[in-house]
Write a structure and sequence with these properties.
This protein has about 500 residues and is an alpha/beta fold. The strands form 6 sheets. Strands 15-16-14-13-19-20-21 form a 7-stranded mixed beta sheet. It has a 6-stranded mixed beta sheet with strand order 3-2-1-5-12-11, sandwiched between helices. A hairpin with a 3-residue loop joins strand 13 and strand 14. Helix 9 crosses helix 14. The longest helix has 27 residues. The radius of gyration is 22 Å and the shape is globular.
Length: about 500
């Protein structure tokens, strides 16, 4: 009997999932495990790569123990991952030379200023589609090479390897020290600041700027092809799809036509619009990135608006302040009040991403009075995600020249009904949640399944998409725009907090 299902590993910022999907895109089985967040200094965010790999092994085992699926049922595996997080490890021992430096980490602020002073900002952005910011892998890799003894010499010999999380996992899944494959896909490579968007190759000038030896870099492949076969814990299963998490969500939402867009509400918040085979430079503070590439077909590109703090702000409210016991409790707490009490919370914990790209910004709460309660703070936390999304949508309308008429949404926060209604209110367009909200894992599964023939074409994927719920705007436009002006005033208060 032919294998019926396609599996996906979704390695995110706070947890790892193993999910199995059937031909209709429905979840057959799932398992999830959180990993530690490590904060050595203010602005530094790290993960233990070995812990992440252990989590992958554990969630696969847990998923296969649920008696709904066996290894023999699985036709292929797709991988999707937190994107810019940077790992360097020893080829022979498999040991990381340092913890994974997470995409939220801001330790490379001075490095980015140094590269800007060298005049690299303009030509680099034209070539790789990204601004010089602490967000991306290139400066993080420079930091490792410049701050850890002997790593550069080992890198030049090819004794240590660089990769984003997908590369680390595929290397382990295909054998690790016993011949593991050192590869990545075009979507993840497009987030390093090291890949030319047109050639889809490592850019020699970018490598010189960041001081990165070519010998430590993975081979860049498409998002949908057979990279190799798994060993344990999924023996002989082909790894056939690899996408950065936000591109995977775009793929899972079936946004295959130019102009179609989605917004994912996870640790951060990420809006992507398909621009087809056209590379669209942004004039409004967005990123130009690779959306996906299927085998040897031409790549598809996207515009992206990246927001650093969305669900992560809810976690902060839970873990650092203890105002809620569980993340889902925030909606009930926010509903204890009817508005934000006049406060705005700008969560620039790691600087401001799109559309500002200000590494020196830091978070603020403005408008505090004695009237404010924890309910108002909870409501302002949710509203912060919605206001940031409004700013990204405005920028996307400028760059694309085609105003969006609806927004497809996915991710953990879309189950928060209060947030989704507020989002529709301040965008002024309908917000649409799909039946499957785990579209990141689904997109990785789709890419793998296309490779091995579980799905014949993207038309079959489009047929799988179903609407679950839609929120329509019902806020007076004058009230909406007044709130938006106040939000922008609050954002300006964050600028320049970190001084030289």
């Amino acid at each position: 009997m032919p294998a019926r299902y396609v599996a996906a590993i979704d390695q995110g910022t706070t947890s790892t999932r193993f999910m199995v999907f059937d031909h209709t895109g429905q979840v057959v089985t799932t398992a999830q495990k959180e990993h530690r967040q490590i904060y050595p200094r203010p602005g530094w965010v790290e993960h233990d790569p070995r812990e992440i790999w252990r989590c992958v092994e554990e969630v696969i085992a847990a998923g296969l123990q649920q008696e709904r699926v066996t290894v023999e049922d699985i036709a292929a595996l797709g991988v999707t991952n937190q994107r810019e997080t940077t790992i360097v490890w020893d080829r022979r021992t498999g040991e990381p030379v340092y913890n994974a430096i997470v995409w939220q980490d801001t330790r490379t602020l001075d490095l980015c200023k140094r590269f800007q002073a060298q005049g690299a900002e303009t030509w680099l952005r034209l070539r790789v589609g990204l601004p010089l910011a602490t967000y991306f892998s290139g400066p993080k890799l420079t930091w490792v090479l410049e701050n850890l003894p002997d790593v550069r010499a080992r890198a030049e010999r090819g004794d240590v390897l660089f990769g984003t999380i997908d590369t680390w996992l595929i290397w382990h899944l295909t054998g690790g020290v016993n011949g593991g494959l050192h590869v990545t896909d075009v979507t993840n490579a497009s987030r390093t600041m090291l890949m030319d968007l047109e050639t889809l190759e490592w850019d020699p000038e970018a490598l010189r700027l960041f001081g990165v030896p070519r010998a430590m870099l993975p081979e860049i492949l498409s998002s949908s092809e057979t990279y190799g076969l798994c060993g344990s814990p999924l023996p002989q299963i082909p790894i056939a799809g690899d996408l950065g998490d936000q591109q995977a969500a775009l793929f899972g939402q079936a946004c295959f036509n130019p102009g179609e867009a989605k917004n994912t509400y996870g640790t951060g918040c990420f809006m992507l619009m398909n621009t087809g085979q056209t590379i669209v430079p942004s004039s409004a503070g967005l990123l130009t990135t690779v959306a996906y590439q299927l085998g040897r077909t031409p790549p598809v590109y996207a515009l992206e608006g990246s927001i650093a703090m969305a669900g992560a702000l809810v976690h902060w409210l839970r873990d650092n302040l203890g105002l809620i016991a569980q993340s889902r409790d925030i909606e009930a707490l926010a509903r204890t009040v009817t508005d934000n009490g006049g406060i705005f919370f700008v969560p620039a914990f790691a600087g401001l991403f799109a559309p500002y790209w200000k590494n020196d910004a830091r978070g603020v709460i403005v408008g505090l009075t004695g009237y404010v309660t924890k309910g108002h703070i909870a409501r302002a936390v949710l509203e912060a995600t919605a206001w940031q999304t409004r700013e990204v949508l405005d920028a996307m309308n400028v760059d694309a020249g085609i105003p969006l008429t609806a927004m497809k949404v996915d991710g953990g926060m879309v189950h928060n009904e209060l947030l989704m209604q507020f989002q529709a209110d301040i965008l002024g367009v309908p917000v649409i949640r799909s039946i499957c909200t785990e579209t990141t894992a689904l997109g990785a599964a789709y890419a793998a399944g296309l490779t091995v023939g579980v799905w014949r074409n993207i038309e079959e994927l489009c047929a799988n998409w179903e609407k679950d719920k839609e929120w329509t705007p019902n806020l007076d436009p004058e009230v909406r725009e007044k709130g938006y002006r106040d939000w922008k005033r609050a954002v300006r208060r964050t600028f320049g907090w970190i001084e030289d």
